[in-house]
TrEMBL record:
Designated name of the protein: GNAT family N-acetyltransferase
Species, as recorded: Streptomyces calvus
First and last residue of the signal peptide: none
SUPFAM superfamilies: Acyl-CoA N-acyltransferases (Nat) (SSF55729)
A GO MF term: acyltransferase activity, transferring groups other than amino-acyl groups
Pfam families: Acetyltransf_1
Domain N-acetyltransferase: 39-190
Keywords: Ribonucleoprotein, Ribosomal protein, Transferase
Amino acid sequence: MTTIAVTTWSLEQTAPTDLRPAAAPEGDVRVVRSEVPSPEFSRFLYASVGGDIRWTDRLGWTYAQWLAHLDRPGVETWVAYDRGTPAGYVELEAQEGGVVEIVYFGLLPAFRGRRIGGHLLSYGTARAWDLAERWPGLKPTTRVWLHTCSKDGEHAMDNYRRRGFTLFDTKVEEEPEVATPGPWPGAHPA
């Protein structure tokens, strides 16, 4: 099996004032919380956003695994819509001690390069900072973090840094090289 070297960068914000919001894109772009845990919708977002950049860790999840994950306190999915069409999403997950991870963030390929990503990341990061306001019993957020890797889109790191995230860790690991799965088995993204 062929392997590839993958660099993973971990970034963080340690205060809400670290966030440097992007300007809202032109047109009818809205960000809405998907409040009903929906394995079908979440799997659609995951596969559609990550299919061309080798997101594979959740593709084998069962319906029950998706539901158990989504139905936990402090897990939220925020979806960007462009004129009513899902354009991308950000998934938040509360962790111990007031820490919130941006677990997944990205846009469907057709919506990249249209200034939606900076807006969605800004909005999602702000929701990470106020997560405890929507989940009684969670500690107020003290840190928001995420990771990106060399397999992600070419503009990902720049977007994170422009939004005020700072680097705190870098790792390089060999990973099996996997085929780009596309949004469904056998699909070949353009």
